[in-house]
Amino acid sequence: MASSLVANRFAFVLLKTEKTVAKFHSFPLSERLRLRPCKFKTKNQFTTNCCVSSAHDEKYSNKQVISVTPPLYDYILRNVREPEILRQLREETAGMRGSQMQVSPDQAQLLAMLVQILGAQRCIEVGVYTGYSSLAIALVLPESGCLVACERDARSLEVAKKYYERAGVSHKVKIKHGLAADSLKALILNGEASSYDFAFVDAEKRMYQEYFELLLQLIRVGGIIVIDNVLWHGKVADQMVNDAKTISIRNFNKNLMEDERVSISMVPIGDGMTICRKR
C-alpha cells in the first residue's frame, strides 16, 4: 500500500514537472533567458533567483556562467565608483522621457576604464542623450583631451551641456548637434581620419553598420570602438522576434563576427556591449 502511494505521488510530481517544463519552453527565448526553473522553489514556480546557466551545446563542456538577478545587480551597483556629478545627472535623467536610453553606472565605469587603459586623447561618442556616458569619458580624459559628442536631440543636449559645465569639462567636449552620420562624414572630409583613439556608439540601431564604417575610418590602428545594445534585451537570440531593429542588430553582429579588420569581444554588461579593436 505504501509503495503504491509513493508510486502515485512520483507519477503526479513527474506529470506536473513535465507540464512546467513544457510551459517554460513555450515562452519566447528572451523570456526563457530571464525566467529559470529553480529546484529550491515549491509548487513548480519560476524564479529569477537561480544564478547560473550554461550553453545548450555540450562542446562548451557545460561551462556555467552567472546570470545577473536583481539582488546581484544591486550588489554590482553598490560596487561601482560613481562620481557624485554622475549620480546627480543619472537621478535627474531618471525622471525624463527615454531615461532607459542612459547607460548604466557599471557600463560607464567600464567605458572610462577603457579610455584610461588606452591612454586616449581623442574620442567620439555617437548618441549622447543627456550625457552620462560622455561625461564619464570626459572626466578621465587629460586636460588636453577632446571628445566629439554627436547628438540630434536639442533638449537632451541642454541637460548634457549643463553637467559638462558643472563638472568643469566643457573645454574637452565638442558638441555636434545634428545627424551623427553627417557629423562623422564632416570629420573625415576635414582630414581627421585615423586621428581618434576611442569611440562609443549608442544611437539609432538601424544605422549601426554605417556608423561603424565611418568610425573605422576615423579611429587609428589599435584604437577601440564600443557598440552598445548588441544583445537587444535578448531578442537577437530569439528567432521568433523579427522587427526591424532586432534584425538590424542581429545582422550587424553577424557582420562584425566576420569582419577581419577588427578584433572583437562581446561583453554581457548592460544590454550587451561589443568592444572592437582596429587591426
UniProtKB/TrEMBL annotation:
Cofactor(s) it depends on: a divalent metal cation
PANTHER family (UniProt xref): CAFFEOYL-COA O-METHYLTRANSFERASE 3-RELATED, O-METHYLTRANSFERASE-RELATED
Keywords: Methyltransferase, S-adenosyl-L-methionine, Transferase
GO terms, molecular function: O-methyltransferase activity; S-adenosylmethionine-dependent methyltransferase activity
Source organism superkingdom: Eukaryota
Transmembrane domains' residue ranges: none
Record's keyword annotation contains Methyltransferase: yes
CDD domains recorded: AdoMet_MTases
Record family assignment: Belongs to the class I-like SAM-binding methyltransferase superfamily. Cation-dependent O-methyltransferase family.
Keyword check for Manganese: no
A single GO BP: methylation
Protein name: Caffeoyl-CoA O-methyltransferase
